[in-house]
Design a protein that fits this description.
Blueprint: H1 2-22, H2 24-59, H3 61-66, H4 70-77, H5 84-93, H6 95-107, H7 113-122, H8 128-139, H9 143-164, H10 184-221, H11 226-234, H12 252-261, H13 264-274, H14 281-304, H15 311-316, H16 324-347
Helix pairs in contact: 2-6, 2-10, 2-16, 5-6, 6-7, 6-13, 7-9, 7-14, 8-9, 9-12, 9-14, 10-13, 10-16, 12-14
């Protein structure tokens, strides 16, 4: 069996290499566009949040933020009360934030592997900024559509979190001795951690852009409908939903399911950030269930709420963003990390 598997992989790699030569011009454009996306969108939107999330973990602040929700955490979700803030932060920060925080907490021996894998299943969803930005400015020209998508995914994640904790025993209370502590070293370490995570995220986005080129050619050969084709491509890179036909509100449930699943690019980003810390079996199962839940909730909601497109949203969505701030940010981060390396050598 292993022999046949190796043969299939070898054939695939050969075909991939040959196709890369044939489609080299298209791949070059796709890679350039994905780098531009990282500079204009990904780095500006994620960098600060990645730094803050790392500071929250290192300082122990996440434990204090969890205290007001201790009863819900203990008796509804059945997770350690110290960890509830990770659940909340992942809802605001977007796809990679939850995985990054869980990895850091796991490295600090403050969560078991089993519980980290369980929480990873539902601490995974797009940020409201991403959904509202795409919905209002690009896809549906409507903030209301964005709220429906986000509400459906959030509610589905909460339902899955509750269901996954039904067979668990209630976790004991918070340790009152836990203290919050900040230091200059924590800030530098957080910047370093955020930079490494952003690098991994951007690399996976660039790789996914290459995969999309091959997927588009295969789907064009199979003569799929444009909307179906773009929905399939969105399962590779979720932001490809912007290529769907504009203001087709009947597509909201399908778009919701795609955002729930996350797409190959985002999953690869999570794998890169978490490395080999966790098993992804529960995660993939959760993606299927949450995508189905969110699709159904969204479909029911759309039937009972009137949605209209805003002309203003189309104009706002055409605004260009300069990559220069991101380039300056990268240079400053490199200088900061270089300074830290030099200081460490002097201390040695």
């Amino acid at each position: 069996m292993k022999r046949y598997k190796n043969i299939i992989i070898s054939i695939f790699m050969i075909l991939f290499s040959v196709s890369s030569l044939i489609l080299s011009s298209e791949i070059s454009v796709a890679v350039t566009n994905s780098i531009e996306k990282c500079l204009k969108i990904v780095i500006p939107s994620l960098f600060a949040f990645l730094v803050i999330s790392s500071l929250i973990v290192q300082s122990g602040l996440y434990k204090a933020l969890s205290k007001p929700f201790r009863l819900f955490s203990r008796y509804i979700l059945h997770i350690d009360e110290k960890l509830f803030s990770i659940f909340l932060i992942s809802f605001v920060g977007g796809y990679p934030i939850g995985a990054k925080i869980l990895s850091e907490v796991y490295d600090n021996n403050e969560i078991t592997k089993k519980n980290a894998e369980k929480m990873l299943s539902y601490c995974f969803m797009p940020s409201p900024a991403l959904i509202l930005g795409i919905s209002h400015n690009s896809l549906f020209s409507s903030s209301k559509a964005g709220f429906i998508i986000y509400f459906s995914i959030a509610l589905s994640s909460i339902l899955y979190a509750i269901i996954s904790g039904l067979n668990e025993k209630s976790k004991k209370g918070l340790d009152i001795k836990d203290k919050i502590h900040f230091s200059e070293e924590m800030l530098v370490s957080s910047v370093e951690s955020a930079s490494i995570s952003l690098y991994k995220i951007c690399i996976m986005i660039i790789f996914s852009s290459v995969v999309i080129i091959f997927a588009k050619h295969i789907l064009n050969f199979l003569s799929f409908d444009n909307n179906i084709k773009n929905l399939i491509i969105s399962l590779i890179e979720v932001t490809s939903v912007t290529e769907l036909q504009k203001n087709q509100f009947n597509l909201i449930p399908a778009v919701t399911a795609v955002f729930s699943f996350g797409g190959l690019s985002v999953i690869l980003q999570l794998k890169a950030i978490t490395k080999n810390r966790f098993s992804y079996k529960k995660f993939f199962i959760s993606r299927i269930f949450i995508a189905i839940f969110s699709f159904l909730i969204s479909k029911i909601t759309v039937k009972h709420i009137s949605i209209t497109a805003s002309v203003v949203a189309i104009t706002v969505g055409s605004r260009d963003i300069s990559p220069i701030p991101s380039i300056i940010l990268i240079i400053m981060t490199i200088l900061l990390l270089y300074k830290k390396t030099v200081a460490n050598k002097i201390n040695l």
